[in-house]
Write a structure and sequence with these properties.
Blueprint lengths: L8 H13 L1 H23 L1 E5 L14 E5 L13 E4 L3 H11 L2 H4 L3 E8 L3 E5 L2 E4 L2 E2 L13 E5 L5 E4 L9
Antiparallel strand pairs: 1-2, 3-4, 4-9, 5-6, 5-8, 6-7
Length: 172
Amino acid sequence: VELQGAGGGRGFLQGIKKWFESEEGREDVKTYFLSLAVALLLRFTIIEPRFIPSLSMYPTFDVGDQLAVEKVTKRIKPFYRNEVVVFNPPQAFQDIVENQYGNKAKAKEALIKRIVAVEGDKVQVKKGKLYINNIEQDEPWVAEDAVYAFGPVVVPPDNVLVLGDNRNHSLD
């Protein structure tokens, strides 16, 4: 075994320099950067990985579950009831989380919720059940009946109403 002295690192650096100057090295670098560019393009325009950070969508999703969020169809079709969506929270939500919980970073995290109503729908939660346009909704994915009352409200144009599946443990 040959031990390298104080200047032994130069051989390693020269080897790396020689590899970068070789045809194989240039091809490898090109392949790496092209792959990185394609991966970033896909991540920012088509599909994005997400982790579930809370129990607000339990039992549909548990803490730590991984999702691949598709980003294309929202641009070509309208949102529909019962669709699970990922979105940035509105400023009012951010203010509540920051003021009541003192967590500025958490206030800006993307939310994962289910669309329960679309524009023009009349929404109400009474006796633990969700009513859309005065019709009780069958929601087999909901963890338990809500312990609160809400509404009635009409969803404004160009808006949707979202709720977590774990209604009593979700900041909706």
